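job 3f2a | input accepted
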Amino acid sequence: LDLDDNAATGGPSAVDEYGFGVANIGVDYYVSLRDDRHGHAQMLDYATRTWHPMGITISGNSFTLRMLRSDLGESDGVLSLSALVGGQLRLATDAVPNAGHFRVSIP
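job 3f2a | predicted structure (107 res):
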């Protein structure tokens, strides 16, 4: 997640690191979907290098993550994101979107 829309701040995206393309975002928060065996995903605050558990709901072939904008310090309702996905015990298999990043407006 790139909250300040500045590719020069934050860290590199996983898409860039694994060679799946160029997301052109500066990662402020990184979300890991690795199973912690307690029903949580993990979110890394890139600035402080601190991991935080976050609730995840899995239903069928989909999942839902919920986070408060205020917890992220996000104020303008716009963020950019990209994702790298794969399977259990497998390396990454796909980048989302196929090129670049999504720019999302949050009501």
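job 3f2a | The first strand starts at residue 29 and ends at 32.
job 3f2a | closed
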